[in-house]
Queue: 2 jobs
Job 1
Amino acid sequence: MRTESIRERFGLAMLELGRRYPRVVVVTGDLMYPTQVHHFAQAYPDRFYDVGIAEQNMIGVAAGMATCGKIPFVCSYANFTALRACEQIRNDICYTNLNVKIAGLSSGLTYGVGGPTHQSYEDLATMRSMANMTVVVPADANAAEAAVFAAYEHDGPVFLRLGRGPEPVVYDRDASFTIGRACQLREGQDVSIIANGPMVYEALSAAEHLEKAGIDCRVYDMHTLKPLDLDSLRSAGLETNLIVTVEEHYIIGGLGSAVLEGLNELGVSTPVMRIGIPDLFPIIGPTNELRAHYGLCADNIVRNVKAALSSI
Amino acid sequence: MKGDWQLGKLDLDGLSQAARLIRIEVCRMFGRVGQGHFGGALSCADIVAALYFHELRLRPEEPDWPERDRFIMSKGHGAPSHYIALGEKGFFPKEWWEQYEKLGAALNTHPNMLKIPGVDFSAGSLGHGLSVGVGMALAARQDKRSYRTYVLLGDGECNEGSVWEAAMCAAHYHLDNLVAIVDRNYLMVDGCTEQVMGLEPLEQKWNAFGWCTEVIDGHDLEAILNAFDNARKHAAGPYAIIANTVKGKGVSFMEGRREWHGNEITPEELTQALRELEGTA
């Protein structure tokens, strides 16, 4: 299992983005090193703006720059953007439909020992509730790089939810990334596992285990939470008997909820099981151990799929 | 009350007429719907007149002209006065004033940049505008453009911490192309600012945050224009103008009254207000 650091690749992608596209500017709030945009800052000091630990101002500044033809990438943490500056994102970027991209790193449990104040379990629920917002959750470092460029090409607000450290590689370098189009990574007739972010790897791993138990799983990387790929969802619902969603986010309001809403909209009533962080503030610990503790891992997906199938 | 306001031509009488026109038309516009944020629209009418009929470099026929001076009505509920200035300058047909607050209308209680030519940023929730202005000023510097950015804030709005984040940032970046104007009318929804959440010493606060700060009579057009001149000459960083004003200025029964922050108005009150503003009371 090869791993690559999400933030390292993000930082290098931003550097290349800055090289290619002169209209790109970076705005951060004292997090250029943790988000690795210090490369961009060093290469393009005239297009780099650190506003210090002031996230509401950070968003407003980006919005103002966007009205002047810049394409700002706000680089910070998922919770400090989506939650601390939530109203600014809503009023200054979404209501105004400005071309600002928000890269929220260190999302989910990826800073395990940081504890709840430095984690995000509500960011996807909050961001997808906003009109005009596009929400993207890349699965690995290669997808993160592709997502940066896809976000640039997209006209309008984007929330790019990213992790932190090394995550297993799922995609090849130069794999294509289309906002709004889920990637089906595995064929299967019995169960659809729909995941995003680092849970995509866990989903693939679970599918392999389940195959040995005679359970045939397809796996979707549903990286775009909003707009949700309803075509893929329809296929999953009509062609398999159970949908399992897996996300490093509360089971309230994120991928699982979006899938339930989508199925309802499609008139498809396939059973859905949501795997995610339960409705509590997690304990602390190293990220991999935390994920295992809360069932955000292949073993738990396998357990739950077997249990669910036995009761259908 | 018709006239052609020539950009750049200093004419204090003309500006005074423009301010009066703003007051009259904003009361008429509120009167059509029976309610409005009279207090704050009237307190900033002279500032808006000075900006739109003298100070700002604009092209009404090209609202997105990249070199235009920017203006943000950060105290969004003051936008109705802005609408009168914009309509008078030809950014949109004056007939739009009659559609104010109607279903789907462009002109509303709080400004929407997507619907109104000449509005540089949407506003309403207080405390956002100065940060946006900082962004515009930074973009100007990056692009080596000479446009200036003006942000009009309420004094109650200065309770918001985000205002001070923006203030700190503007000073840090020495944004000499950014001007903050505080409509210091000493009133907010719940009463006098100093009783609800004291702002004083406000001038010292702006100074301490690194802004060259000037306190003026916000109804003295000459003082307003001089302050804009001083701001333009101040090359070390951003400039704050604390404009002492009277909430509801120009209408005797509204002046200094908390209730007229946002209030319903009877036809009789409207008639009285217009008589006073037109000078026929």
Note: The longest strand of chain A covers residues 242-250.
Job 2
Amino acid sequence: MRLRRFALLLLLLLLPTSAKAAAQAVQSTELIENALAFNGKTVTYRGEVIGDILYRGDSAWVNVSDGANAIGCYIPASEAEKIEHVGRYRIVGDTVELIGVFHRDCPEHGGDLDIHAGSITVLKKGRKQEDNPSIELIIASGILIPCAVAAAILVLKKRSVI
Amino acid sequence: MFFVIGSFNFALHHAVLSGRRNELRRNIETVTFTITLTLLTLIATLGLMKNNVYTNIAATVRKGFYQLISGHTTTGFMTVYARQFYHEWGDIALFAIILSMLLGGSACSTAGGFKGLRTGIIFSTFKMEVKRMLLPESRISEQKIHHMKDVVLSDSIIKSAFLIVAAYIITFIFGTLLGMFAGFPFGMAAFESASVAGNVGLSIGVTSAAMPAYLNFAYLIIMWLARLEFMSVLTLGAYILRKARRKCD
């Protein structure tokens, strides 16, 4: 009886720890630098969806960037449809989390480094991003463009004189 | 295919499009490129297989050949992460890529590196000198190379080829030394220096936002020097120096 209680207590103590470990996302740099160690393991990866979603029949390629690197993730096409925004110029893509198998050299995809995930969770929706030029840039342009025009006129005048 | 065609001499493009398809087979640059690409692909593949980098031969050839041809034609497209080159590829495959980046593409193209023409001239010179030593004097005739037309391998052509290749090698050595001084291991420093000197664009992870400013500046100068193939920069420098001396006098 005592042994059973002890075993149950031990199990309860271990469960939250293992759950936390599974949720802890791995950085792309860590995956690339330790690709051999992570090869074939299940990993949690988080980042912004960038580029284009490439549909391939029932599956899709999604490029997920955590700021340091972008890793190609192979997911079911139905999961890719959850993604609304894909990061590009003036658009911040959806932040997603996926749990999948990391391959250092995927045998299915010609030796590429990728993550095969069964599902994807959208953590944060993307948005449009304004990209207004800075005031310094406008002032610098205002000074340099007339200088360039003046220099061009001077050179052309000199040439016509010669 | 586009990498290779893009790295060929534009005069060769014109010759082929004008109907002189034989030029593809006879031109010293295409011959040199074929030989160096074949040899280096073999070396890179053997290096990758030795380290069991990829699980099957198809992936080995696909990845290895792609990076190699990207380096050799100085295209600069990468399908492996920069750090994978250093951590996984091993010294033999890295050596092959470094050499391919230094050799580069063809003259009169947008490619960088020594250029196939100079590599061909150097090898033809070696062949000529060995013949000179082995054969009786009466049997020795002038050595010719075919580059759009038959050209006699004169001393001035040989000197020019060796001069520029020597300048590239000195620049590469300087870039490698500087990379090592910045704290990077030899393999990484040499790879990045070759990429910079050849104006390739492949990276092993040295070039980043965190790189030292002096290394950044040095790479800028090396890229500029190598792009202009040294002589025009040296001539410009000598001209400015001469003008400054005259003004002081």
Note: Confidence is low (pLDDT under 50) at residues 17-22 of chain A.
